[in-house]
Amino acid sequence: MIEKARILIVEDEVAIRTGLVDVFVFHGYEVDYADHGEEGLRKALSGLYDLILLDVMLPGINGFEICNQIRQQDRQQAVIMLTARTSDEDIVEGLTLGADDYVAKPFSVTQLVLRVQAVLRRSGIGERQQRQISLINGAVIDTENLCIEGTDGLFTRREIDVLQYLNRQSGRPVSREELLTKVWGYASDMDIETRTVDIHIAKLRRKIEVDPADPQVILTVRGAGYRLLVEDP
Ligand code: CA
Known about the structure:
The chain is α/β, with parallel strands linked by helices. It is 39% helix and 18% strand. Strand 3 (51-55), helix 3 (63-73) and strand 4 (78-83) form a beta-alpha-beta unit.
């Protein structure tokens, strides 16, 4: 299955938003959008998107605040800020808050698509996997040899992918839907079988928890999903 990159467009101006949706659908992306700050923030924090195009001036919560909250949750989320304001202070503020790039309106659609492609390539590099994950219980996962260091406990590639994805979220609870989307590559609108995730988590717990019935490393957060506890980096 070829996975389409998923883009969220947060933009309140109808003409610009619909134009952007058309352009990115045309270029083969899966596109979703929000037309005000609250909805944009909620979707941006869902973890379901590979890249977020974020307008600055929005009704409700502005784009800088949304970017700030995205960064507090996920250092790896790709974000490009869009704005009509082009002063140096705005650019500095956007980049300080952690946007990957900054595109001033009016922009050329071709340029914007190229910038999006570049940021997606970089974030792919940014996601280059860590070789080791040191769990809170002292076990060290060797992600290349798919084992726990010093033992012959073996993992499947998918199990390691789940651990690496959880590890990149810095202890944030991750929903089953997000794991299916990001690790398995399901489209976010598919009628998805979340039990697949639970089965993989159960298998992982049997391999890494001292007592799989009382997990201390992969925690279940009611209503939110799973979170991974690692040693302080
Ligand atoms: Ca706007």
